[in-house]
Amino acid sequence: MLAAWYRPFIVAILLATLLLGSAPALAQTSGSVHAQIDQAFQAVHVAAADGGNVTSLVATLNQAINLTERADGMNSTNPQGAANLYSQAYSLASGVLQTAPAVASQGKAAVSASTTEFYSETIVLAALAAVGYYFTPRIFWRAWLRAHKGWKVKRV
Amino acid sequence: MVVGIIVVIAGVNAANFYLANRVTEPFSELGVLGPGQTIGGYPTTLAVGQQFLLYGYVGDHEGAVDYYQVLVKLGNESTEVSNSTYARAPELASYGLVLSDNQSSVFPIRLSLGTPGTNQRLIFELWMYNATVSQFTYSGLWNQLWINLTSG
Q1: What is the ipTM of this complex?
Q2: Residue of A nearest to B14 (CA)
Q3: CA-based nearest distance A58→chain B, Å
Q4: What is the pLDDT of residues B41-92, one digit of tens each?
Q5: How much is the pTM?
Q6: Domains of chain B (ranges plus CATH)?
Q7: Residue extents of the structural domains in chain A
Q8: What is the DSSP string of B6-72?
Q9: Which residues in chain B have Cβ-Cβ distances shorter than 8 Å to A68?
């Protein structure tokens, strides 16, 4: 009895949730999705310049672009389908936009580690060169003396 | 001798560090392939409304991630297009793609043309997204196919 009384309210709440949930999807237009893709691309461009691995971001961005092109093609004949595709494309581009800074940070860290490794190697090589320059003659002449210690000088 | 070897190793190491990922001559590629994804088999005569398939090829050797747009336009004998001027002709289709450095992509181009006539030109232009001005700019790369369109 009580459940029957509540039923219209539950249906109303569900409908409201569905409408509110789908409102942003319907609100995405071709222009807003293209703008979001442009922004996402700029973020990926920066992440790549910082040395980040952007392979998956590029793949996702291409998916968003493909969906947008499909939506542009069907916008006049099937606006609801187009809105759905725009919404998906917008989500993908937004995901790329959110992930790109982390990828850029990873890239910066990798570049920094690589630079540190290079300078460490250079310092080690310089130290080896200095040690070699200082000790090689001594080691060489000691070895020479040891090798020739049995030799006798004969007057001819 | 030992010092010489170490100096050579250090030199190779330094060259590798400074020259890695350095692009001396950045460039992009645009190609149009036939229905078999090869250079050949291009349509020369088509009926109005007849669907045909081509493939676009874009390569990125710019040393960076780039956002490309391939525009397909329908021109004629008098349409001017060059490395510095893009064609002022109706746009039939556009294909967007993002490529990493040294990456290339082949994608299908499905078209059908509407107005009969001889010596029509399908013009393919490569545009690149310019982040400074936040819009696509003409890269100077273009291609064309000459097509005769019959009424049926």
Answers
A1: 0.85
A2: A118
A3: 6
A4: 999 999 999 999 999 999 999 999 999 999 999 999 999 999 999 999 999 9
A5: 0.78
A6: 25-150 (2.60.40.10)
A7: 2-114
A8: HHHHHHHHHHHHHHTT--SS-EEEEEEE-TTSSS-----EEETT--EEEEEEEEEESSS-EEEEEEE
A9: 96
